[in-house]
Amino acid sequence: MEDEHIVVALFVNRLAVGGAEQQLLELARGMDRSRFRPIIVTLSPFPEGGLEREAQVAGVEVVPLNRRGWFDLWAFYRAFRLLRQRRVDVVQPYLTPATLFGLLPALAAGTPVKIVTERCGLRVKVSWRNSLYRSIEDFLSRFADWVIPNSQAGREYVLKRGINQARVMVVYNGINLKRLVSTPEKVAQVRAQMGVPPGGRAVGIVASLTPPKDHLTFLQAARIIGQHLPQTRFALVGDGPLRPLLEREAQELGVAPLVTFFGNQRDIGSYIGSFDVAVQCSADKEGCSNVVLEAMALGKPVVATEVGGNGELVEPGVTGLLIPPRDPRALAEAVIGLLEDPQRSQAMGERGSEVVRSQFSLEGMVKNYEVLYQEVLARKRGRV
Q: Which of 171, 174, 210, 353 is deepest in the core (most CB within 10 A)?
């Protein structure tokens, strides 16, 4: 029966392909269904090529609020009604403005447990609209039971925003190793699509084509690497509004023949598995990067920028290398060093795989949240 389960409503802007959305989906489908009933609540209709189908296959209910404006009062009311009708026990929003559209109705509906999740360690550049949302969310977060960043960098970020440290707890992302299963045939196919010649190497980045991910630095580094190691090829996996600009930039830099834009791909294991070195060059925000952990899990050495939580995942010289942001020369030199020392690269990859399996398991992440839900709910109900 409904009241035998803990009903958890996970709010998100939309089920697009992205790191935060993937973690939300993994949490929802990983919950023990004998004790928990997850509901994913989206502000916007389902985007084409998003994660809705995967949620439905996993038996997770997805409810769109169909928000039509910045402060759509009907969307607030629909959220309020959902929380009351389904007798939701836990509200847990991801990202701005889903936090506002989850917390405010939860407070009005008297939802027992309210948990705010902070996905990004740093947000240097935000629009005035997001700043307004965030200011309201910061105020409402004072009434939440817990604020959960996914990195220590994220913890420092929310503390600077005035959140009580007694209610802040870090829960790192968990990696679903089943998503990373691939075959040698598929990896060979991807490398062939990239045009990797016999004896050549492949360097790749997996990220949305948006400004914070700084693909321009990746392309500038590709030119330097290509001049030094001409048999190297480069992959950009992901899509976004900057794709036309980046394709033009690749032409202007003279690296277009070496670069393949793959767009969004769900078989992520085959693509990361085709890389000899995985790059993450975010410039101004990053929490606990799924892609860094996925590359490590697949035994790939990682070159990442030293921003946000990256330094908590990559141990320099052990599982990968850290470089300054927006520095194509540093990125190129780090990648070249790894490509020219395959023994060192292999050792880094093997150690990274061990770290992910022991410290960043999906099962561990889901268990952390399940225990938290139960403990807070029991306290609210006077059972402890």
A: 174
